[in-house]
Amino acid sequence: MSVKLGTTAQSEVIVDIDNTAINIGSGSLPVFSTPSLVALMENAAVKCLNGFFDESLTTVGIALNIEHLKASSVGEKIIAKATLVNICNRELLFDVEAYDSKGMIGRGSHKRFVINKENFMRKLK
pLDDT confidence of 3, banded at 50, 70, 90? Predict the structure, then answer.
């Protein structure tokens, strides 16, 4: 693997009714949902790895430990940042953070595992 420690990437989204807690079912208020925060953080980690693997390989998420620190309202722009901080064989560890216009709204860590796409899908059959 030619993945490099310290690689970073970002993902962003605007909070709209589709990614609110009340719409997703993770809460009863029209605020950015924790499941949407998780997806955005994972997407930033995936983006960190773009261009590092040949077509036969990809990664799958295997662990996530985050804190959703504060609510964000509809219309806010959310930016998630992932930084690759450790590589242990095929396991990759990322620090993840997310911000809105008022500051940090989430932080934590995310692990991904490098897999062969064909072998992985064959095991599911």
Answer: confident
